[in-house]
Amino acid sequence: MLQQAGYQTAIFGKWHLNGADWEKKENWTGWTGSFPKQQGFEAGMVTKENPHFTRLLRTNTQKHPGDFFSIDGEPLGPIRGYTSDIITDATVDWLSAKRDARPFFLYLPYDAVHIRVLAADKYVDQYNTGNARKDAYYGNITHLDAAIGNLLSALDSLQLSENTLLFFSSDNGPDVLQRWEATYFCYGTSYPLFGQKYQLYEGGIRVPGLVRWPGKINPGISDEPNSTLDILPTFCELVGQPFPPDWVLDGSSILAHLVEGKPIKRESPLYWQFEDPAEYTMTGEEYNRRLNGNQRKPRGTDPVVAIRDGDYVLRGLQSETFTQPTQFVMYDVVNDPEEVKELSQEKPKLFLSMKKKLIAKYQNVNKERERTAAEIEQKVSQLE
Q1: How far apart are the C-alpha atoms of 310 and 230, rounded to whole Å?
Q2: Predicted structure pTM score
Q3: If 297 and its partner were Cys, which of 279, 285, 317, 371 is the partner (CB 3.0–4.6 Å)?
């Protein structure tokens, strides 16, 4: 969409959107259409999962990764340094020497602080918690922070800061599940929210986000719920790029909220769906609260769908994958972030209204899933 509006586009970092064999060059222009260049990126370097889960070095580390590819699918081999610096340095080099006179869109999916974390000693040494792995985790965050600071400094030196809108967000709540050895490096917390990564509770889906546009956005804090799905319509409104008439968008533009402080207008509630949720035994209290990955509870009726409308979240529960939810619970997540008090009986009209919206959305998404699955099956059969 931004290419059509005259923007040059680049990506540096993790591309985790397809399961095709990256070693076969023909796949980069093949039938899946799921590689970065096929999705509109003109320049950059990408890794097929996390740079530290390498195919060449066979080690799990963010130091000297060996799984980056050019935008055309050429393996770049092991690269000296740490992934946060490598991604940032490549970005700064592109900004400084390789972009043209057009405005630009940059996507930077960093892999920090994904396990297994590793940071330079100068960042790890800033901490002394008594737990070496916790120090490594904190150092990894600090290393990422320093790398992004270098990116902002480059924008300053190139005199681009005043005319650059920057979004920064986590992708999901913290993984403190202790499912396997490397997850003991994870020391994030969603407290006082309930739940974490792999779950549709607030601790799994409510994450930090920052937006920066000097001179356009006043510094401050917003509690207005928004989503990364809002970025597409926001950017397109900003550059005046219309959508095809048959498009159905899940997000809404938040431009007026960012620059004028106006409430976000939505035609439908924010929506999340994850058909493989996980319920586990919980250990620890408050900031040390963790889920025990070795004690997964038998699948019962798990929350797989959630919608947010105002202060309220409604969750749909199912007992069988890809079936319409049969049970529903509602919480005021503003005043009850730990989701203790269920409100369906206290607010029956709101409950029924949100339930209707949730079911309609689920049916729509499931219809799209079935259509896409049928298309893929047909293409695979033709290839065979």
Answers
A1: 16
A2: 0.92
A3: 279
